[in-house]
Amino acid sequence: MPISREQFDEGLEDLSYKVIAFFKSRSKEAFEASEVAEAVLVSPSSTKTSAEMLAKTKKMEFYLADLVRQGQVDKKTIGDRTYYAFHKD
User: Fold this and answer.
1) Number of domains composing the chain
2) Which residues contact 64 (CB under 8 A, 6 or more apart)?
3) Which domain holds residue 60?
């Protein structure tokens, strides 16, 4: 299956690339991991249980932590919530 040149250049696997694309398209906003998981991992037509969403959120936290380490995503805790946003140069 082919990938975009941008994905090739950035060297990102598919899910990380989708997360970066999500953040790029919403670069003026920050999101909690559960919001990113819902946008990237859940198809609009599927029903989601709270257990499934918790599992998807935990999976997303793994990818977000990796993208934070790579410097592509910023992480900030505000109050008792942790937010993620596209890294601005």
Assistant:
1) 1
2) 19, 33, 36, 73, 75, 84
3) 5-86
